[in-house]
């Protein structure tokens, strides 16, 4: 039997918050198809339903928004420090840079806003050691 992974590893690897074994998503984060990353309805190990109630993942939009703001501020400050002067002439460079940042980080924000919601912002959902050991559904 493998030792359980830590909560941080479960968040990084997008694992189920209850058993820390099942994947929350199917597909790759960055994919050229429109079927790239789909949230599983249930955990394949412990059968936890990820969408706790209808509209549960709407809250992840607020988390994604906060992540977007943090990324845009970071990219803006970094580009200023690296030599892009903050003048009216360079305004469109900043706009293009921020648009590109949002576009590149969108799949990352989509995935990890849902993972953060499940792991850290759902109070009645936590790790249960041994859950899913005897109930592996799809394998």
Question: CA-to-CA gap between the ends?
Answer: 16 Å
Order of helices and strands: HEEHH
Count of distinct strands: 2
Runs in which pLDDT lies below 50 for 5 or more consecutive residues are none
Overall outline: elongated
Q: Whole-number average pLDDT?
A: 87
Describe the fold and architecture:
The chain has 139 residues and is mostly helical. It has helices spanning 7-12, 60-81, 91-120; strands at residues 25-26, 38-39. The chain has one domain. It is built from 3 helices and 2 strands. Helix 2 runs antiparallel to helix 3 (91-120). It starts with 6 loop residues before the first helix and ends in a 19-residue tail after the last helix.
């Amino acid at each position: 039997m493998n030792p359980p992974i830590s909560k941080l590893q479960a968040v990084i690897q997008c694992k189920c918050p209850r058993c820390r074994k099942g994947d929350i998503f199917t597909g790759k984060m960055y994919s050229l198809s429109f079927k790239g990353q789909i949230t599983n309805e249930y955990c394949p190990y412990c059968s936890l339903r990820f969408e706790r109630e209808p509209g549960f993942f709407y809250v992840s939009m607020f988390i994604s928004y906060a992540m977007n703001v943090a990324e845009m501020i970071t990219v803006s400050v970094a580009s200023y420090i690296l030599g892009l002067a903050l003048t009216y002439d360079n305004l469109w460079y900043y706009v293009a840079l921020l648009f590109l940042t949002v576009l590149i980080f969108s799949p990352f924000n989509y995935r990890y806003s849902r993972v953060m919601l499940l792991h850290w912002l759902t109070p009645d959902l936590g790790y249960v050691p041994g859950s899913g050991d005897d109930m592996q559904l799809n394998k």
